[in-house]
Amino acid sequence: MSDGKTILLVEDDPTIAMIIRETLIDECARFASVASIAERNAWLADHRPDLIITDVVLPDGDGIDSLPGAGVDPETPVIVLSAQNTLDTAVRATGIGSYDYLPKPFDLEELTTSVRAALQRVRAEPAAKIDPAQADSHGLVGRAPAMQAVYRTIARLASNDLAVLILGESGTGKEVVARAIHATGLRRSGPFVAINMAAIPRELIEAELFGHEKGAFTGAHSRNAGRFEQAAGGSLFLDEIGDMPLEAQTRLLRVLQSNEYSTVGGSQALKANVRVIAATHRDMRTLVADGRFREDLFYRLNVIPVTLPPLRDRRSDIGALVRHFVDAGRHSGLPDRQFAPDAMQMLERHDWPGNVRELGNVVQRLAVLSRDTIVSVRDVEAVLTASGEGGLPPAPADSISRAVDDWAREQLAGDEQDGSIHSQLEAIVEAALFRRVLLDVRGNQLEAARRLGINRNTLRKRLGQLDIDPANP
Ligand SMILES: Nc1ncnc2c1ncn2[C@@H]1O[C@H](COP(=O)(O)OP(=O)(O)OP(=O)(O)O)[C@@H](O)[C@H]1O
């Protein structure tokens, strides 16, 4: 028990108020409970609480927005309870300097832990003031419990400049979250600059990140600003950080440690003025264990990890996401659609290996393909099975390039580099492609060459080299 402490609860639901009182009565000397903003303000006129616990939606207004004018000592910790459960509420709660934000339904043990910490005044970092007009949900749709932890972390990141690592399967929304972290953070008036480590040839990564001087390497005809310079004052989003080559990792670590960098070919030390937000779909601990990612850089980036749950772990958000994608489609000219209840249930049951991105693609396809304004379960079934078991692959070109990347990594990790890696890959890819096309055209080489868009003689020669029998591929 914290001696002599007073807790004020602002909650209009009498049942919740009673449960909270029962839970916390032994944690304080005095427990006051009010049910509206007017009652709260009247109580505050005569008392000074050591902690305020407040609901957001109250009969006479918003429990967060009305608090700053209520004459409370700004140092008083506030715990916000809300069933609104959006990033907006989490961010606004942080904006008033609240101690904690607990989405409803909340866990009573969690509430007790939070209350004890607040009463001992182990305060969180001072919170940034968020302009309520700016605080929408920053493109993030969904209120499932699994997303609440994400919103709370984003809200806590708003008041500091720490590096962030966003983890999650492909298509779970890592880039949307990176943008939300930027948009709610201290650097929101600065630029948001993104760079994808997997999309840039390894020999160019350092020049892309740090810039280069004129003549630094062949083809460097003029000085070029790197992403660190472009993002100055803002946030730098390093997407697919797990794919960053080791040499670039070493440089990045040095920059994060010293806050200084120099351009490729330059000698002057420049000040790094960015918040680094990194993301990857890869398992970082495996990359570290395999020696493919520097452990010290991993720990430096992993101070505040944000782990995005796969869509199958937040199925209750699927309805809201479907609505969101239908609306987005409508704005870009697609027809408006409703979903029959069983059609929606089928979408909710699906496992979504490509996560939110795959759901977005499927919804937009359904909006186009469905003949009726109401999408039926048959429409959904047809689209989900269109590409065989497991539904639509999220992005075929993407999965091919990732498979190639994994394969190439293994080859390059081997001791022997005989310069045949390109021709080996070509043989693997061509053989698979030729076999599929030959099967499709029942061994007709002329037709196969036509579909492949290559010369018939070239095809015949390659089939010989690859030892493929066109009649029995
Ligand atoms: N919670 C969300 N609310 C609304 N849209 C979302 C949400 N999550 C993801 N999306 C949408 O899904 C698509 C994929 O999201 P995003 O590109 O952020 O995923 P990612 O995790 O970065 O994927 P990858 O690992 O393949 O780069 C985007 O169109 C994005 O707008």
UniProtKB/TrEMBL annotation:
GO MF annotations in UniProt: ATP binding; sequence-specific DNA binding
Cited InterPro entries: AAA+_ATPase, AAA_lid_NorR, CheY-like_superfamily, Homeodomain-like_sf, HTH_Fis, P-loop_NTPase, Sig_transdc_resp-reg_receiver, Sigma_54_int
4-aspartylphosphate: residues bearing it: D55
BP GO terms, sorted: phosphorelay signal transduction system; regulation of DNA-templated transcription
A single GO cellular-component term on record: cytoplasm
Organism domain of life: Bacteria
Domain Response regulatory: residue ranges: 6-119
PROSITE patterns: RESPONSE_REGULATORY, SIGMA54_INTERACT_1, SIGMA54_INTERACT_2, SIGMA54_INTERACT_3, SIGMA54_INTERACT_4
Subcellular localization: Cytoplasm
CDD domains xrefs: AAA (cd00009)
Coiled-coil intervals: none
Main location: cytoplasm
Key word Transcription regulation present: yes
Start and end residues of each Sigma-54 factor interaction domain: 140-368
Keywords, comma-separated and alphabetical: Activator, ATP-binding, Cytoplasm, DNA-binding, Nitrogen fixation, Nucleotide-binding, Phosphoprotein, Repressor, Transcription, Transcription regulation, Two-component regulatory system
Pfam families in the cross-refs: AAA_lid_14, HTH_8, Response_reg, Sigma54_activat
Free-text function comment from the UniProt entry: Member of the two-component regulatory system NtrB/NtrC, which controls expression of the nitrogen-regulated (ntr) genes in response to nitrogen limitation. Phosphorylated NtrC binds directly to DNA and stimulates the formation of open promoter-sigma54-RNA polymerase complexes.
PANTHER family: DNA-BINDING TRANSCRIPTIONAL REGULATOR NTRC (PTHR32071:SF95), TRANSCRIPTIONAL REGULATORY PROTEIN (PTHR32071)
Protein's recorded name: DNA-binding transcriptional regulator NtrC
Organism: Sphingopyxis witflariensis
Phylogenetic placement of the source organism: Bacteria, Pseudomonadati, Pseudomonadota, Alphaproteobacteria, Sphingomonadales
